[in-house]
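Hey,
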Amino acid sequence: MSGRKSHWENVFRSKSPEEVSWTQEVPETSLVLIRQLKLPKTAAIIDVGGGDSRLVDHLLDEGFTNITVLDISGKALDKAKHRLGDRTPLVNWVVSDILEFKPSAQYDLWHDRATFHFLTEVDEIRKYINIATKHISGHLTMATFSDEGPDTCSGLLVKKYSEELLAEELSRGFIKVKCIKKDHTTPFQNKQNFLFCTFRRSQI
């Protein structure tokens, strides 16, 4: 088991949603950005690093029928499946490190609120972007810690982004549609500043 996988399996094995900073009962900013895309309900959507996020619950509530949730932690996905109960089979679940992910599909929407900013090495960032570029046919919605955000999360260093830096990183395959900054209030009542951006795949 890789060090990265071991770290996240331990986090989700040992902590409840109330004990981790990223918990959101309603992922409102992501939902607003997704609704603005006016995707058909059959759109292929992947939530990268979805863990036990509640985004999948809301996408199902809104009638989307082709949802994939990917996470490096099988324990995280088990928690999400337990929560969804009878609706679990409606979702495609993938346990994989994003850097080892070999998609068999093209995605109309690639959503990531939890993974990209943990990649701090140039080769990791390039590999992620290459995978995304090859397998996104529509839009990418990305949330990272902003340049005003924290330096670490879950005991790991993160890479913070300004709107300009994120757009530059993705410029070879994507065209920026819009970016907004939002404060996320953790279960511990701390505030973390996020940068949310939507990009459109170029040459589509």
